[in-house]
Amino acid sequence: MLFRPGELYSSTEIQTHLQVGNAGGIRVSIQDKSVRRIAILTAVPTAKVASENPYHDRVEGNILVYSAGGLQGDQSLGGVNKRIVEQLASAFPIYGFRLNQSRRKAEAKRWEFIGLLQFLRVYPDAQVDRNGVLRKVWLFEFRICSGFTGVCASSEAEIMANAIRDYSFDANNEERVGASEPEINILDVKANAEEIERARAKIFSLQPRDFELLVKTALEASGFSDVETTRYTQDGGIDVNARASKSHWPIAGMRVQVQAKRWLHTVGRREVAELRGSLEPFASGAVVTTSYFSRAALFEATAPGRQPIVLVDGYHFASIAREFGVVSA
Predict the structure, then answer these.
(1) pTM above the 0.85 mark?
(2) Which has the higher per-residue pLDDT, 69 or 291?
(3) For the domain with range 187-323, which CATH number is right: 3.40.1350.10, 2.40.30.10, 3.30.420.10, 3.90.1640.10?
(4) Is residue 251 packed enough to be buried (19+ CB in 10 Å), middle (13-18) or exposed (0-12)?
(5) Residue 145 β-bridge partners
(6) Mean per-residue pLDDT for 235-247?
């Protein structure tokens, strides 16, 4: 069978033609004790699911953010989860499918093939579970590769290898980092971190435009003047403009231009460089996100000989929003 990006397939077709299991979100095909291929199955959340779980799996641009299993308690990185990482060494194909409709009929063609997936990174995060308790979770980031008309067992290895080869990615330079990694906050300031993470969960539930408006409100609450959002589309990479007020006396009057990223996936070097290129002369720039920044992004923001860019990750912004009362825990 030829799997074509954008077309729908049944669970039985996925199981039979890819020779994977029939249950679970990560389905592995093994040959001679090695991974032959993996199928990743995710879903478009209903409004109810999205409101109850703001951390739900997301497709953002060409990135799929996929959560490990378990809605309560700390998650572990074991079992089939560990198999995904092996793609870095053996480049086996990972098929991505997204459920857009009910699971009621297994034979119905309800699974959209979104493309082959290139594993980029897995990292720990801190989230509030359904009982309101702070816990450690694991998130996977995949690049969605769809620059082909179709893929089948006879062509999958070549298509996957070409997709990986043609994409420049340095796992060391693009390692995700941020102030709110569990090793720092859960152990050191757990009580405070729980309240801040509840605030971050509320921010995650916002639509991207509403997040821009929240950044505007937070700037106003912290004393900036002339704060305004730009057009939602064709904004040139600038989402909010502001000016430092007299209370920011060492930089009073300075033009501040902010890019707001309501993302679950990592903000990388490219986004930081693009913002710098969009700034007005003599303006100061900042990227504010609900997620985190890669090491390459941090380096780009402070690279010698370049205009510095301020980076505010999701944990930091949630604490600011909570401090100024624009988001409650």
Answers:
(1) no
(2) 291
(3) 3.40.1350.10
(4) exposed
(5) 116
(6) 90
